[in-house]
């Protein structure tokens, strides 16, 4: 008879690793199974193009990682994690050569918005200054699980941010500020008319001022490797290269925690097709990783100093691109682009003088076309001569993203649409969103609240739910 573990975790993304660490830290025996040969999920680093070019196939910029209450409570620096802060967290250039930015200070950010909107930006951010520690803990936990630490600030965020970003930004005179916010909200891949997108934009802006938008030295793999090393030190066992297909393949355990999509969880655990029948996947990404012969030749000098650069010339164009992919079910004519340039702060990730760079736009779930031309047209628009620098590119549309990671169903890297009730009730309305119909089976992926990003907070919250269930069972 094989011995009984306390917990088996399926999937070694940031949430699976966080859940495993937190349960091991409470003295539980934990065994983790990951389908791919390396841990990390959406926080990986690979030579996707040429030898010596270290690309992040998914996440690269980590406002939510450096600001994560779960990660901050772990000694990850001891396991090699080092955050590297670019001079500017984010630049958002425009056709006239100017740019909006997210700088580390509210004052510098406001100054870039120009005299008509600077005071408005300062007023918008003022109530949240210095509140990151409590505010992040409050909005990343399940809203109805206990009292917030700072109810007043959380209520302020809710009152302003529950509205669509397109409403929140009506207070700005100039479209540059509106485009900056529309670009921030676009990280949840929803049109700016979607409720709660105001909060998303506010949180990303606040993070720039309070904790920064750093990259991990060596690439995002460093985050996952640090989590896995810490887990092993706590006695956890990690298996890679094992795709779990059925619950009964796993060793006996008191609890099973799935860092998978809800669809995969229902199939593997035999929960039945109706377990998550209301759950919806969202629009996909179309991503290109580049090996470059030099830095991106942005027209805007400001963009050359930023870790992340958003390409969306106006709030209207950004809105149209998101609407096309997420609502109309067609590829945008002019995509909104999220880009990162890691070698600005971490030159060791490419041979001397060379650079890694990625860009993605949004396309419908499961789309099988090629967005490369449209993406590069936009890059040339803001960085003339970009194409001449391309040494190699690794192109990943929805099918390739899903092949790299089973959680990206149809290329939806958020593992669930940010729409309707799912903006708050992820993966479904329930007091404990991590529990399932099977008392020993739990979900801990970004399909569950608080959703996408490398922050481990779905894993943290799920670990709490597992702990409570096991403690109650032990009584
Ligand atoms: C192009 C792109 C850019 C992004 N940029 C950013 C960014 O800059 N910053 C940011 O914070 N976030 C970013 N994200 C989002 C972020 O990567 C995800 O939200 C995050 O990784 C989700 O974490 P997770 O632990 O829930 O799942 P994942 O990271 O998806 O990990 C799930 C893991 O489970 C494994 N798995 C699944 N099924 C099985 C099975 N049956 N058996 C065994 N193992 C299984 C998978 O192989 C995978 O390793 C980006 C994502 C993409 C694709």
UniProtKB/TrEMBL annotation:
SUPFAM superfamilies: FAD/NAD(P)-binding domain. InterPro entries: FAD/NAD-bd_sf. PANTHER family: DEHYDROGENASE-RELATED, PHYTOENE DEHYDROGENASE. This is NAD(P)/FAD-dependent oxidoreductase. It comes from Streptomyces radicis. The lineage of its organism: Bacteria, Bacillati, Actinomycetota, Actinomycetes, Kitasatosporales.
């Amino acid at each position: 008879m094989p011995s009984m573990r306390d917990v088996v975790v399926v999937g070694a993304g940031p949430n699976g690793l966080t859940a495993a660490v937190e349960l091991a830290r409470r003295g539980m025996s934990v065994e983790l199974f990951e389908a791919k040969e390396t841990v990390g999920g959406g926080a990986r680093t690979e030579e996707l193009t040429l030898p010596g070019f270290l690309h992040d196939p998914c996440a690269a910029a980590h406002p939510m990682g450096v600001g994560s209450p779960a990660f901050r409570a772990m000694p990850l620096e001891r396991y090699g994690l080092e955050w590297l802060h670019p001079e500017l967290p984010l630049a958002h250039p425009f056709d006239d050569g100017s740019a909006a930015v997210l700088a580390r200070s509210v004052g510098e950010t406001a100054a870039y918005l120009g005299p008509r909107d600077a005071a408005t930006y300062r007023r918008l951010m003022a109530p949240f200054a210095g509140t990151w520690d409590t505010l992040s803990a409050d909005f990343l936990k399940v809203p109805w699980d206990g009292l917030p630490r700072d109810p007043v600030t959380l209520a302020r965020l809710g009152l302003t941010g529950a509205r669509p970003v397109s409403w929140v930004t009506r207070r700005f005179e100039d479209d540059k500020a509106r485009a900056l916010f529309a670009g921030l909200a676009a990280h949840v891949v929803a049109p700016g008319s979607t409720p709660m997108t105001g909060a998303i934009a506010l949180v990303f802006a606040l993070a720039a001022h309070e904790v920064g938008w750093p990259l991990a030295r060596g690439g995002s793999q460093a985050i996952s490797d640090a989590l896995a090393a810490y887990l092993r030190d706590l006695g956890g066992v990690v298996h890679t290269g094992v795709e779990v297909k059925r619950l009964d393949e796993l060793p006996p355990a008191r609890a099973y925690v799935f860092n998978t999509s809800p669809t995969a969880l229902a199939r593997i655990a035999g929960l039945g097709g109706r377990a998550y029948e209301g759950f919806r996947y969202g629009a996909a990404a179309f991503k290109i990783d580049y090996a470059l012969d030099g830095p991106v030749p942005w027209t805007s000098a400001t963009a050359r100093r930023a870790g992340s650069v958003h390409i969306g010339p106006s709030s209207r164009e950004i809105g149209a691109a998101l609407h096309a992919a997420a609502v109309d079910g067609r590829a945008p004519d002019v995509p909104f682009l999220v880009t990162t340039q890691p070698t600005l702060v971490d030159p060791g990730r490419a041979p001397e003088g060379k650079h890694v760079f990625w860009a993605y736009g949004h396309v419908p779930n499961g789309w099988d076309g090629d967005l490369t031309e449209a993406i590069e047209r936009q890059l040339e628009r803001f960085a003339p001569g970009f194409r001449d620098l391309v040494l190699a590119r690794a192109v990943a549309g929805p099918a390739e993203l899903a092949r790299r990671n089973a959680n990206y169903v149809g290329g939806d890297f958020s593992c669930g649409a940010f729409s309707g009730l799912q903006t708050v009730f992820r993966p479904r309305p329930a007091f404990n969103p991590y529990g399932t119909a099977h008392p020993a089976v739990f979900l801990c992926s970004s399909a569950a609240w608080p959703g996408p990003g490398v922050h481990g907070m779905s894993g943290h919250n799920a670990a709490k739910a597992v702990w409570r269930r096991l403690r109650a069972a032990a009584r």
